[in-house]
Amino acid sequence: MNEEIDFILDSTKEAMNSAIAHLEKELIGIRAGKASPAMLSTIHVDYYGSQTPLGQVANVNTPDARTISIQPWEKNMLQEIEKAIMIANIGFNPMNNGENIIINVPPLTEERRKDLAKQAKAEAEHAKVGIRNARKDANNEIKKLDVSDDMKKNAEADIQDLTDNFVKKIDEKLVVKEKEIMTV
Fold first, then answer.
1. Among 54-63, 118-127, 162-171, where is mean pLDDT lowest?
2. Residue 65's pLDDT is what?
3. Contacts of 75 (CB under 8 A, 6+ apart)
4. Closest residue by Cα to residue 165 from 2, 1, 12, 3
5. What is the pTM of this model?
6. Buried-most residue among 15, 67, 72, 130 (CB within 10 A)?
7. What share of the chain is helix, strand, coil (3-state, %, to 5)?
8. Exposure pattern of 103-117 as b/e (b: 16+ CB <10 Å)?
9. 34: number of Cβ within 10 Å
10. What is the pLDDT of residue 159?
11. CA distances from 155 to 20, 26, 66, 123, 136 (A)
12. Residue 163: which H helix or E strand, with range?
């Protein structure tokens, strides 16, 4: 095949892989019933005037399936971390014991599980849109090339195969996450 077509295919595959990576990152943040440090990954703390990710000012771990423990590296950060968790409005009530912040993760209700499954489905749809946009961009690039029509058709078929494979991967990841969310 042509070098330009190979380059377009490679860049398309890279764009589609990044859409999958983004989906995986988003799905990790969706709570599935058990405590996980990733649930707090979006929280930023005011650390001496700058917004800093929680993981850079404290150890975040899970001693058991229903508890998240946050141990700040500096004791004076306890109130800031507690305030940041409350402001984030993620449905947790942090408890400060003077040493650590402890968050008890309540069990999910059936309604909340359904909402989280919808949220996971929406994230999967966003990823599919990213995949389709990468396909559209690649097809537009191929149409601009100065190669034979047969080569263009073959390249477009390859891009469609890539698209189908990546959409299938997204569907598989969604099924796994939905099962994880709905399992009591």
1. 54-63
2. 79
3. 99
4. 12
5. 0.72
6. 72
7. 65, 15, 20
8. bebeebeeeebeebb
9. 15
10. 93
11. 22, 31, 50, 29, 13
12. helix 149-182
Q: pLDDT-based confidence at 29, cuts 50/70/90?
A: confident
Q: Roughly what angle, to the nearest 10 degrees, separates helices 3-29 and 110-144?
A: 170
Q: How far apart are CA 178 and CA 65, in angstroms?
A: 19
3-state secondary structure of 114: helix
DSSP 3-state of 145: coil
28: pLDDT strictly greater than 70: yes
Counting Cα atoms < 13 Å in the Cβ hemisphere of 20 gives 17
CB distance 66 to 104 below 8 Å = yes
Which helix (DSSP H) or strand (DSSP E) does residue 126 occupy? helix 110-144
